[in-house]
């Protein structure tokens, strides 16, 4: 039987080692890191991961690319099925140095599923080796998604971000947050852009969508979700999700699609 202990895959003499695993709703992992890089693929449910420099939401059909030795923690929203691919550092030297959420292509999903049915010590010259090479190639080609909340290093800006994450429905505007942080409006806006690559408004909108996706996975009612993340109507939230996720934001949940459900 294949192990479900991550540590059992860190020294496997293969470029790619895969581990499927299931979690009940509300499960979490404490902050930890792996010697290998990790592709954390959500085959069902939704995960939210946090690290020192960001927060990432990983809905079904997406995966989080995690560089080697990056400390991170993960919370499961709803029941989660996932597949972790642990990748040898030498095989991913040209891959991104920061974590990011990627879309999982049908080919990558199929290759990962097939590799779980191969022995952990698969024949590198046979089917297993070909599947591993395909996994690496597809990860390298996968497009990044905007399901990332980059966190600034400046302590004052970080406190603003944490406040927005903790209370996405807060009525405080830009000036009020600047005053709370002890910053001028100009310093806060420039700092946000410099350290996160996003404007204050864009970061806040993304934080609200990230929370909405998590609440959806938790089974909350659609209109309740809209209110909880600071929108006066479900239509306004849908509009924001569609602008942030134009390819997936307006389609039904399932098969990797994301949407606030309305059949409640």
Notes on the protein architecture:
The structure is a single chain. 36% of the residues lie in helices and 23% in strands. It has 264 residues and is of the alpha+beta class. The chain contains eight helices and eight strands. Helix 1 (106-116) runs antiparallel to helix 2 and helix 3 (155-166) crosses helix 4 (174-181). The model is unreliable at 249-264 (pLDDT under 50). The protein has helices at residues 106-116, 127-141, 155-166, 174-181, 185-196, 200-217, 222-228, 234-244; strands spanning 16-23, 28-32, 37-51, 54-59, 62-66, 72-87, 100-103, 148-150. Strands 1, 2, 3, 4, 5, 6, 7 and 8 form an eight-stranded antiparallel sheet that branches. It starts with 15 loop residues before the first strand and ends in a 20-residue tail after the last helix. The relative contact order is 0.13. It is elongated, with a radius of gyration of 19 Å.
Helix-strand layout with pairing:
Elements (H helix, E strand, L loop, with lengths): L15 E8 L4 E5 L4 E15 L2 E6 L2 E5 L5 E16 L12 E4 L2 H11 L10 H15 L6 E3 L4 H12 L7 H8 L3 H12 L3 H18 L4 H7 L5 H11 L20
Antiparallel strand pairs: 1-6, 2-6, 3-4, 3-5, 3-6, 4-8, 5-7
Helix pairs in contact: 1-2, 3-4, 4-5
Number of strands: 8
Structural class: alpha+beta
Distance between termini?
40 Å
User: What is the general shape?
Assistant: elongated
Mean pLDDT reading: 90
Low-pLDDT segments: 249-264
Helix share of residues? 25-40%
List the total number of helices.
8
Written as H for each helix and E for each strand, in order along the chain, the element string is: EEEEEEEHHEHHHHHH
The radius of gyration over CA amounts to 19 Å
Largest sheet: 8 strands, antiparallel
Q: What amount of the residues lies in strands?
A: 15-25%
């Amino acid at each position: 039987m294949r192990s479900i202990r991550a540590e059992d895959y860190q020294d496997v003499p293969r470029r790619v080692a895969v581990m499927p695993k299931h979690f009940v709703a509300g499960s979490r992992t404490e902050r930890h890191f792996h010697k290998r890089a990790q592709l954390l693929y959500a085959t069902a449910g939704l995960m939210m991961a946090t690290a020192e420099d960001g927060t990432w939401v990983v809905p079904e059909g997406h995966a989080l690319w995690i560089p080697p030795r990056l400390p991170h923690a993960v919370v499961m929203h709803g029941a989660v099925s996932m597949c972790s691919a642990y990748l040898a550092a030498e095989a991913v030297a040209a891959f991104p140095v920061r974590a990011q959420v990627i879309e999982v292509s049908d080919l990558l999903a199929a290759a990962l599923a097939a590799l779980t049915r191969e022995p952990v010590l698969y024949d590198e010259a046979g089917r297993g080796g070909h599947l591993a090479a395909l996994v690496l190639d597809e990860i390298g080609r996968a497009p990044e998604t905007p399901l990332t909340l980059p966190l600034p290093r400046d302590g004052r800006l970080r406190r603003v971000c944490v406040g927005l994450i903790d209370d996405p429905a807060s009525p405080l505007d830009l000036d009020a947050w600047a005053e709370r942080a002890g910053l001028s409006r100009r310093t806060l806006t420039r700092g946000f852009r410099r350290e996160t690559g996003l404007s204050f408004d864009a970061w806040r909108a993304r934080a609200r969508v990230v929370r909405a996706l998590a609440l959806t996975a938790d089974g909350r009612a659609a209109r309740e979700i809209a209110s909880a993340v600071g929108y006066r109507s479900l239509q306004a939230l849908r509009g924001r999700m569609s602008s942030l996720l134009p390819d997936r934001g307006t389609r039904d949940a399932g098969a990797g699609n994301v949407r606030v459900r309305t059949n409640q």
